[in-house]
Amino acid sequence: MLEPDFQTHPPRILVVEDEKTLRLISKRALTREGYTVREAINGEEALELVVESVPDLVLLDAMMPEMDGFTCCAELQKRLGKNCPPVLMVTVLDDEKSVNLAFEVGATEYITKPINWAVLRKRIDRLLTTRWALQELERRYEQAHQLSLELEKANQKLEYLARVDALTQVANRRTFNERFQEEWNRSRRDSSPISLILCDVDYFKKYNDYYGHQAGDSCLYKIAKILQENCQRASDLVARYGGEEFAIILGGIHLEEATHLAEKIRLHVQESAIPHQANPNGNSVTLSLGVASLIPDENYSKNDLVRQADAALYEAKNAGRDRVVVYQG
C-alpha cells in the first residue's frame, strides 16, 4: 500500500498572498501542521522562487497586484509542464466565471475566502497525498521499466550464449542444426543449391600435446576468426561442429563457388602461419576441407549432404591433409 511519510520528509508549500496578515496566518498554521513554508507577495516573486526550488504545492491567491493568481498559475503550467505542482487557488471570487477560469489556467483545487482552515487542511492533505502517490507510481513504473530493459538484455545475452560456442565465438552445434534445417527447407522450396564445407585442423592433437590446451584454444579461436572473415554474406553460417572441426553452411551457393571459398580459406590459414612445430608436413597450422553441394529434392535429405561433405573431408585427410577435396559421388 502506498503510504507517504510526511513526518520524515515534510512537504514544501509556497504561499503566494499579497495581504501580509493572511500570509503570516497561513504560514503559521501550515508550519504547525509540519509543512515547510516559503512566502511570496505576488505572482512574479512566486515564479522566481519556483525556479529556485519547485515546491510540493502552491497556495495561490487569485487577486494580487502586478501579476494576479490566474496569470501566475498559467505561467507556472507553461514553465514547469508536467512537473508543475498542484495549485490550490484561494480567492474571494466565487462566481462561475472565476471558478472556470481558475481550472482553465491549471488550478488543481479552488477554495474561497474567508478560509475555513479545517477544509483547507483536508484539501492540502488530499492534494499532497495524491501528488505523492502519482510520483511514487511514476517512480515504480520507471523502476519496472528499467528492470524490464535489464531483463530483456539478460535474456538476449542468454540467447546469445545458448547459440554461440563460448571458445570460438562462432555458432555452436545447436545453431548449426537449426540453420541447416532452415537453409535446406529454403533451398528445397526454391530449387536452389545448398553447399556445405566441413573443415578440420590438421594434427590438432599433436598441437595440443606440444603447446598445451590453452594454446590449442587460442589456435581454434584464430581459425574460427579466419573462417568468419572469409564468409561475407549475411546468410553464410560458420559453426564449430565439434572438437577441432568446423562447418560452413552456404545457402544458394553452387559447388564451384563453395570449392573456391574453401580453397581461399585454406590459403588464408596457411598464410596466417600459426606455429605448429608438431605438424609432420610443416611448421605451421593447416586445414583440411571437404566440400559437397546438393539441390534438395525428395531423393535427398540434409543428412546426405553432411555424409558427402564428411566423406570429402575424410579423403582430404587421407590424401595428406592441407587440401580441399570435393565430393564426387
Description:
The mean pLDDT is 91. The chain is of the alpha/beta class and 329 residues long. The longest helix has 47 residues, at 117-163. 52% of the residues lie in helices and 17% in strands. The chain starts with 11 loop residues before the first strand and ends with a strand. Helix 10 links the parallel strand 9 and strand 10 (324-326). A five-stranded parallel β-sheet has the order 2-1-3-4-5, with helices on both faces. A five-stranded mixed β-sheet has the order 7-8-6-9-10, sandwiched between helices. It contains ten helices and ten strands. The chain folds into two domains: 12-140, Rossmann fold (3-Layer(aba) Sandwich), CATH 3.40.50.2300; 173-326, Reverse transcriptase/Diguanylate cyclase domain (Alpha-Beta Plaits, 2-Layer Sandwich), CATH 3.30.70.
* Estimated structural class: alpha/beta
Question: Biggest sheet, in brief?
Answer: 5 strands, parallel
How many structural domains does the protein architecture include? Answer: 2
* Molecular shape: rod-shaped
CATH architecture of the largest domain: 2-Layer Sandwich
Helix content: 40-55%
Distance between the first and last residues' Cα = 74 Å
- For the record, the CATH class of the largest domain is Alpha Beta
CA radius of gyration is 38 Å
Mean of all residue-level pLDDT scores: 91
Q: Identify low-pLDDT runs.
A: none
- What is the CATH topology of the largest domain? Alpha-Beta Plaits
